[in-house]
Amino acid sequence: MAVEVGDRIRQEFQKVGLRCTPQRYAMLQFLWSREGHPTADEIFLAINRSDPRSSRATIYNNLHALAEAGVVLAVSLDAGPVRYEANRQRHHHFVCERCGVLEDIASGDVSYRPRRLHLGSRIVRDYQIVFRGVCGRCSKRQSRRC
Ligand SMILES: [Zn+2]
Ligand SMILES: [Zn+2]
């Protein structure tokens, strides 16, 4: 099973023509092994636990390369740090205003579909909707109070 994931990771790099270095491999493995949207710092700390030779700068550069190649997605919201994720299915995001959790919303769950991807003279390559509100956990906590 572990071999399978390893093969898939190597194939992923091959597909986009990016060299698979041990560090890039570890980064993608980390992102594939968990859900969520870690920041570059969180990825750095996780990778450094198993490979303390990685410097912050190389991790940042590699993350940038991975995002450029489309192997991972970079998500930037508000003024916070850029977050990364391996979920490359088209999706939107939900931010909880109470606990700050960032959740994925499948694009199929959203009925809004722009008909043309042109806004005036702009040509839109991609778009992403950010929903804000109260997440399931926080809303449960709230209703239990009364
Ligand atoms: Zn919440
Ligand atoms: Zn996401």
Overview of this protein structure:
This protein has 146 residues and is α+β, with helices and mostly antiparallel strands. It has two domains: 2-84, Winged helix-like DNA-binding domain superfamily/Winged helix DNA-binding domain (Arc Repressor Mutant, subunit A, Orthogonal Bundle); 89-144, Dna Ligase, domain 1 (2-Layer Sandwich), CATH 3.30.1490.190. 41% of the residues lie in helices and 17% in strands. The chain has five helices and seven strands. The protein has helices at 2-16, 22-32, 40-50, 56-69, 136-144, and strands at residues 73-75, 83-85, 91-96, 102-106, 118-119, 122-123, 130-133. The protein has a three-stranded mixed β-sheet with strand order 4-3-7, with no helix packed on it. A two-stranded antiparallel sheet has the order 1-2. Strand 3 and strand 4 form a beta hairpin. Helix 3 packs across helix 4 (56-69). The longest helix is centred in the N-terminal third of the chain and has 15 residues, at 2-16. Bound molecules: zinc ion (2 copies). One zinc ion binds next to helix 5.
